[in-house]
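quick one
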Amino acid sequence: MIHKKSANSIIVASIVGLLFSIFALPSVFSKEYFTIKNGELVRPSGYREWIYVGAPLTPHDKNNGKANFPEFHSVYIDPESWEHWKKTGEFRDGTTLIKEMNLVGSTSAPSGEGYFMGRFVGLEATIKSKREFPNEPDNWAYFSFTVPPEHKSLKQTTKAEPTANCSACHEKSAKHDFVFTQYYPILEAAKADPHKAVGGVW
Ligand code: HEC
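structure w/ heme C:
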C-alpha cells in the first residue's frame, strides 16, 4: 500500500517533472512572427520595431547603373530569434529576417559627399521553418514583396521564390546558416554573447 504522504510527493514530483519538460521545450512557447495563408506569406508588419542588424549598400552607380537589390538594405531579425541568437549563436526554427530596401536619395549632405537614404523600393524576407518549408535547403524559404519595375508598391501576399532563385547563393556564400552575418556587425557581436549584444561594448 502506498503511504498517503509518499503518494502526495509522487504527484508533486510528477507535476514538477511535467512543468519542467514543458518549459525545457522552448518551441512549445516560442512565438512566430510570420503568417502563411493559402500557401503564401502575408506581408509582415511591425518589423521596423524588431532588432536592426545592418545595412548593406549596393548603389546603382557601382553596379553598371542597375543593382540587383537597390540600394540600401536595412535588415531586421524578429525579437525572439534575436534572444535565441545571443544565447546560443544559432538561428532558431521560426527565424524571420526582413530586408527593406531604399534608393539612394541624395549624394551630398552637410556631413559630406556620400549616399543618403531616399524612398522605399522593396521588401524581402527569409524564414527558417521545418513545418512550413520541409523541402527547402535547411528549411530556409525566400520571399519578395517587391513589384518591379516601378518598385512603388508591395504585394499583399507572396509565394516562396523557387529555390534556385535565392537559396543557392545564400547557401554558398553566407557565413552562418544561409545568413550573411559577415555583413551584419550587430549579429556578429551578439553571437552567443548577451553582454556584447546590447551595445556599448565592442
Ligand atoms: C548572388 C547572390 C544572392 C542571391 C541570388 C540572392 N541573395 Fe539575398 N543576399 C545576398 C547577400 C550578399 C546578402 C547580404 C548583403 C546584401 O544585402 O547586399 C543578402 C541578404 C538577403 C537578406 C537578408 C538576410 C540574410 O540572409 O542575410 C534577405 C531577406 C535576402 N537576401 C533575400 C533574398 C531573396 C528573396 C532572394 C531571391 C529573390 C535573394 N536574396 C537572392 C546574396 C544573394
